[in-house]
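Re-run with default settings, no changes from the original entry. Doing this only to confirm the output is reproducible before filing.
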Amino acid sequence: MSQFFAETLKKLRTERELSQQALADKMFVTRPTVARWESGTRLPDAVMITRLAEVLGVDVNHLLSAASVSDECPNVIMVDDRKLILTGGLPVLADVLPNATVTGFTDADEAVEYAKSNRVALAFLDIELRNKSGLDLCRDLLSINPHTNVVYLTAYGNYSLDAWGTGASGFMLKPITPEGVREQLKHLRYPFYIYNGEEDV
């Protein structure tokens, strides 16, 4: 199911100061139905999405777009201005996150443009980038999507205190390893579906 739709619906409902019961009454459904939509365990059909748009006073395309976002194939990016680090790190991410679309960038601005048109679930960012600080890049990504999980990558442990002030989920020393990535996945601010043969993360 689309967790993004669930988050969008809950945000719209709370902005309008409606309880789940109040929204349910306006929708002519039960409160548990709304609760399932907001938990991401159920997705309303097109008729219900159209009715939701009318009740909440939003463009139906906004809700349809949110419903079309799949959590089962999350977008994961890695940004490092050294190609050697990228070529070594991307296969590690692809191995640990087999259901994800993993994309690398050497340019911070390209990563920002990608994030504007693709919902990024997880970003691994080098702190020292050639054209922008990784800390600033984190802020840019979170301004686009506040639910992007950010993990900093660096060879220098003394950056960790600055990193925590930016809303990041974690901090890793290079080189990137499967064990290190798996450990970071346990502490994401906004967990998402990760296929590993057994469970969701």
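Strands lie at 75-79, 101-105, 120-126, 149-154, 170-173. The longest strand covers residues 120-126.
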